[in-house]
Amino acid sequence: MFVLPAPALVDPARGLVLRPWRSSDALVLATAWAVPDIATQATVPGVGTVANAERWIAGAPARRGVGMSLDLVVGPLGGDEVWGEVGLTRLRLTAGDATRDEVEIGWWVLPGHRRRGVATAAAGLLAPWALAQLDVPRLVARIEGGAEGSEAGATRVGLRRLTSLDATRDLWTGPSDRGAVPSAGLAG
Ligand SMILES: CC(C)(COP(=O)(O)OP(=O)(O)OC[C@H]1O[C@@H](n2cnc3c(N)ncnc32)[C@H](O)[C@@H]1OP(=O)(O)O)[C@@H](O)C(=O)NCCC(=O)NCCS
Predict the structure, then answer these.
(1) pLDDT of residue 42
(2) Reported confidence tier of residue 119, pLDDT bands at 50, 70, 90
(3) C-alpha of residue 149 to centroid of ligand 1, in Å
(4) pTM of the prediction?
(5) CA 177/CA 164 separation, integer angstroms
(6) How far is ligand 1, taken at its centre, from the CA of residue 65, in Å?
(7) For 135-158, what is the mean pLDDT?
(8) Which domains does the chain show, CATH number per domain?
(9) What per-residue confidence (pLDDT) applies to 16?
């Protein structure tokens, strides 16, 4: 399993940076985990308490070190604020007896920072970096069908819907799909 490096990714035109989580971000992270659509549509690892958020932030370097996930704050260039999160996670998909290891991209934006291109810019920075640096043929995303903004955002990042995962979620893939993905019966 390869080690995910920590990128320093900046969008100067938007004044946006992707940076590691800091312990001082715990309160805002706990608040984000309690936002209903973030809790249901993003993969939230714990109950929205500050103690859980602190533990999760403290574990980020270890998760990155073993290639499990890369979790980054989306925020202003030169500032401490948290606008949202974008991350990569190892995901094992199964189809019958076959399994495939994929890299999932996921993101969320705090309600006060939505509808100004933050999600599109953040995922648009991380996705090409991941394809170039991690030597993977594609990324995947689990997107709730019909969820407000989720499908539009995935499309803006260059992903396309591939198949249903379960009753509520679809599997999306891209941005440049250089490999075949089984088209049915996948489960995360
Ligand atoms: C979905 C989400 C990430 C959008 O964040 P955002 O920063 O507001 O998104 P952007 O401003 O980059 O907009 C991206 C596209 O989605 C559209 N969009 C965003 N929110 C929308 C909404 N509530 N209703 C309709 N369209 C919406 C935008 O119009 C834009 O499309 P366009 O450029 O073609 O008009 C945010 O609402 C969120 O965190 N939701 C909960 C978690 C989630 O769904 N994550 C995605 C799955 S991992």
Answers:
(1) 85
(2) very high
(3) 4
(4) 0.90
(5) 18
(6) 30
(7) 85
(8) 9-180 (3.40.630.30)
(9) 95
